[in-house]
């Protein structure tokens, strides 16, 4: 059963995720690389792609926090919290690249956060095997999304590529961890709904 204290903690986490600078214990991938000379169109494209990735990490934070809130077993809660911690690092890295590219974060982040928190709490309430299965499928779809961004990023933007590559490696590991903890394979219709929802979010965030 969710306690009032838990909701207060989650509200505080939400404010920090949306408003406070994200923290990281790992250095920014590609930090030692020189900033590429890019035209304005290339910079706008790279900035928009990193904005999408940043919003994706906002969603990931909320999803994992919601899932941990309603997860049954303590070890599942811990695994979700560890994944959320790495997503905080991803937030920091994406925001750093957005700033370097002269871009901006999405205006829709509060809406993405709220919706994702509710979806995560619902997934957790369905039971640990479905909760972990949802996590694994989310991360699989994120990996495919990041692969697409690696194709679309300007070839010269090695700094953004380094960030996306490390994010991809982390997300793949999260999926593996979820399956190792007993995650169930989701039904095909659920996967399709997740895919279509993510596509809508990324297309909107690319512009707003």
TrEMBL record:
<keyword id="KW-0503">Monooxygenase</keyword>
<feature type="binding site">
    <location>
        <position position="57"/>
    </location>
    <ligand>
        <name>Fe cation 1</name>
    </ligand>
</feature>
<dbReference type="InterPro" id="IPR011566">
    <property type="entry name" value="Ubq_synth_Coq7"/>
</dbReference>
<feature type="binding site">
    <location>
        <position position="87"/>
    </location>
    <ligand>
        <name>Fe cation 2</name>
    </ligand>
</feature>
<feature type="binding site">
    <location>
        <position position="174"/>
    </location>
    <ligand>
        <name>Fe cation 2</name>
    </ligand>
</feature>
<dbReference type="Pfam" id="PF03232">
    <property type="entry name" value="COQ7"/>
</dbReference>
<keyword id="KW-0479">Metal-binding</keyword>
<keyword id="KW-0472">Membrane</keyword>
<comment type="pathway">
    <text>Cofactor biosynthesis; ubiquinone biosynthesis.</text>
</comment>
<feature type="binding site">
    <location>
        <position position="171"/>
    </location>
    <ligand>
        <name>Fe cation 1</name>
    </ligand>
</feature>
<dbReference type="GO" id="GO:0005886">
    <property type="term" value="C:plasma membrane"/>
</dbReference>
<feature type="binding site">
    <location>
        <position position="171"/>
    </location>
    <ligand>
        <name>Fe cation 2</name>
    </ligand>
</feature>
<dbReference type="GO" id="GO:0006744">
    <property type="term" value="P:ubiquinone biosynthetic process"/>
</dbReference>
<keyword id="KW-0831">Ubiquinone biosynthesis</keyword>
<comment type="similarity">
    <text>Belongs to the COQ7 family.</text>
</comment>
<feature type="binding site">
    <location>
        <position position="90"/>
    </location>
    <ligand>
        <name>Fe cation 1</name>
    </ligand>
</feature>
<dbReference type="InterPro" id="IPR047809">
    <property type="entry name" value="COQ7_proteobact"/>
</dbReference>
<comment type="function">
    <text>Catalyzes the hydroxylation of 2-nonaprenyl-3-methyl-6-methoxy-1,4-benzoquinol during ubiquinone biosynthesis.</text>
</comment>
<dbReference type="GO" id="GO:0046872">
    <property type="term" value="F:metal ion binding"/>
</dbReference>
<feature type="binding site">
    <location>
        <position position="87"/>
    </location>
    <ligand>
        <name>Fe cation 1</name>
    </ligand>
</feature>
<dbReference type="GO" id="GO:0008682">
    <property type="term" value="F:3-demethoxyubiquinol 3-hydroxylase activity"/>
</dbReference>
<protein>
    <recommendedName>
        <fullName>3-demethoxyubiquinol 3-hydroxylase</fullName>
        <ecNumber>1.14.99.60</ecNumber>
    </recommendedName>
</protein>
<keyword id="KW-0560">Oxidoreductase</keyword>
<keyword id="KW-0408">Iron</keyword>
<keyword id="KW-1003">Cell membrane</keyword>
<feature type="binding site">
    <location>
        <position position="139"/>
    </location>
    <ligand>
        <name>Fe cation 2</name>
    </ligand>
</feature>
<dbReference type="InterPro" id="IPR012347">
    <property type="entry name" value="Ferritin-like"/>
</dbReference>
<dbReference type="InterPro" id="IPR009078">
    <property type="entry name" value="Ferritin-like_SF"/>
</dbReference>
